[in-house]
Predict the structure.
Amino acid sequence: MNKATSEVEFERLIAEVLDLAYGVARRLTRNGDDAEDLVLEAVLQAKKGFHTFEPGTNFKAWFLKILTNVFYKSRAKNRRAAAETDINELSERSLYDRWKEGNGEGDVEKILEERLGVEAISKAIDALPEEFREVCAMYFLEDLSYQHIAEILGIPLGTVRSRLHRGRAQLQRMLMEEALA
Amino acid sequence: MSAHDAERCRRALELLADYLDREISEEELAFVEAHLSACGGCAERFEFEAKLIRVIKTKLRTVKAPEHLAAKIQEMLRRLEG
């Protein structure tokens, strides 16, 4: 691939992955401005390392790996005060249990769609402990396998599974009040 | 519900998330599907969870990158290429 073709191809791939990258960056940084800075830095690093990308492989996974690496490097320098939910404060009962305790009637999907707004869901994910938040962000924003998430984050498959299960359970509890209000 | 049935429900619920994500072995898949066809309570719970996940994914994926971010990226790439 010559230089001009490579530049065009890189821009095309970045354009395709931009919404996803920004969505993941928003969840990692929990801040719009920081998310933009993170995406810009990740694009810069990706551009520098684009010669290592193998055409035909998963660009989204390749780019998200760079994005998370950039995030953890910058975070080590400039750690934000955590505003995470104390999981011990959350009810042990799931949203489903609470739903059943109520009337448990009606079209669940329609009711959840009406009651759970993007803001409420984003806020709930942002309140998850970081190790759960990063896995949940990848899981909810893109149809990645557990194996792909493990490769992107550089953690074992079993760790992805357990963090995702626990993160989802906590998310349900946090969304419980919102959905059943 | 017998102790045996309760144990099957417990096992099915343990596999719930992996089942919904299709991250499950063939043997586990066969067990869950057989159980769901026989247990209305678990089938309802699985359906509820599947719908909740679908709603969360759909809502979160409506968030787009700001237009000015795409412009900033273009500008940065032009500078690098220039």
